Every structure is written in C-alpha cells, then in structure tokens.
Amino acid sequence: MKLIFLGPPGVGKGTQAVRICDILDIPHISTGELLREELRNDTELGHVAKGYTSQGKLVPDNLIIEMIKERLDVPDCKKGFLLDGFPRTINQAIALESITDIDMVVNIDAPHDLLLERISGRRMCSGCGKSYHISHLSSEICPDCGAKLYIREDDKIETARKRFEIYEEEFGDILDFYRKKGIIVDIDGAQTIDVVTENIIKNIGGNNK
Ligand code: ADP
Ligand code: ADP
Ligand code: ZN
User: Residue 66 pLDDT > 60, yes or no?
Assistant: First the structure.
C-alpha cells in the first residue's frame, strides 16, 4: 500500500506512522527525519536544510523532491511505503505524481492548542527517530532502543507557531488536490494513540498490497 500522512506539526503523524508501517510491513519515510539524519551525518544537505528548519521554514522544493526521489528508488519501496511530512507544498504534490501513484491519503487533524501541548513535551530518539511525550517517560533514554532522547530545536514555541502558520498557508491546496482524486480519509487526531491507530486501520482497510 502506498500511503501519505498529512497533518499539522505535532498531530501524531510520526507516532502513528511507526505503528501503521509495522502492521503493514512497509517503510516509513519521514522527510523531517531524513533531514535530521543528514544533519547528524554532517552532510551539505543537512547544513543547508538546517538554515530553514531551525526557523520553522520549509526547505526548498527542489532539494526535498530530489531527496524523496532517491529514497523512493530504494528497493524496499517496491512493496509500498508511507510518506510522513511529504508533500508539504502543492508543487511537491504535483512532482510526486510524476514519480509514483498513491493509494490513499490519511489526513489527521486536531485543535491547535492540543498540538502546542504535544510539541512542547515532545522528545525524539537520537537512535531510532521515534517520538515520545515527556508525560509518558521516566528517563531521557529511548524505551525502545536505549539511545539518548533530545528536544528538537524547532519545537521551541515561537518556531512551532511559525510552522503552524506555514501549514495553514499550504495545506488547503494540497487537501483540495487529493480530495478531487477522492483518495482522502479524515482522522480525528485528538483521540488516544491507540484509538487513532484503530481508526486509521479501519479506514484504510488494513490489508497489505
Ligand atoms: P508529528 O509527527 O505529527 O509532528 P508526533 O508523532 O511526533 O507528531 O507527536 C507529537 C507529540 O505528541 C509527541 O510527543 C507524541 O508522543 C505525542 N502524541 C502523538 N499522538 C498522540 C495522541 N494521540 N495523544 C497524546 N499524545 C500524542
Ligand atoms: P513535524 O513532525 O512537526 O510535522 P517534520 O519532522 O515533518 O515536522 O519536519 C521538520 C522540518 O523539516 C519542517 O519544519 C521543515 O522545515 C522541514 N521539512 C520536512 N519535510 C519537508 C517538506 N516536505 N518540504 C519542506 N520542508 C520540509
Ligand atoms: Zn530509539
């Protein structure tokens, strides 16, 4: 199954993507995580991207499209994939059409005050890239892989607000684009993590293809 997860920063895309990819046995492709990995590996792309991500701005389309093209070329994507955080502009959505077809778009939403609360307590794993919330953690170590957790630089409140603004600007067009194709399912992201997972599975059919 070829899936896209859309939704505002902090709505739970990453958290749900890990679970759904586990169930469907498909790779989880997060452009945000790919960029953070580039930075950890000290690459030129990582440093260029940081100039944008640290201010809550979008990285230019050409860099992101090139990066996603390369990732989708890896053979593990033959069985399907889940795109998390891509496309984020209408140009990216149009470019994606010439790279691959998509089966379904999962649009997750929740009220913005809830998202700010989630973002301000987010902790990321430096090893496996999973995200956690401080309210569920008893140490600064990843419960899954044991690596150290860190706070994303762009999760500062001012930067988070900037990211919401950009989301509002871009997502109307992207939603229209996929609604016209009739492949969107809408999911309430304000529910508990387990309930959101159940609803996603129910709505996408849950069978691998
Ligand atoms: P996104 O990838 O959309 O930015 P994340 O998956 O990183 O969002 O989740 C943001 C934060 O909210 C994390 O701290 C995560 O643990 C927490 N979170 C995610 N989904 C839920 C939920 N359904 N209920 C409560 N907290 C959640
Ligand atoms: P969130 O989990 O809060 O939705 P991500 O981890 O997906 O955020 O992305 C972090 C940052 O990386 C974004 O704020 C943006 O600067 C950059 N980024 C990620 N994906 C894209 C994309 N598709 N286009 C442009 N910039 C991107
Ligand atoms: Zn980990």
Answer: yes
Residues with CB under 5 A from ligand 3 (ion): 125, 127-128, 142, 144-145, 147
Domain boundaries, given as residue ranges, for the chain: 2-111+160-205
Q: Distance of CA 86 to CAs 3, 39, 105, Å?
A: 11, 18, 11
Residue nearest to ligand 2 atom 1, measured at CA: 9
For the CA of 11, the closest atom of ligand 2 is 4
Q: What is the CATH code of the structural domain delimited by 2-111+160-205?
A: 3.40.50.300
Which pTM value belongs to this model? 0.94
Residue 205's pLDDT is 86
Q: Is 19 a residue of the active site?
A: no
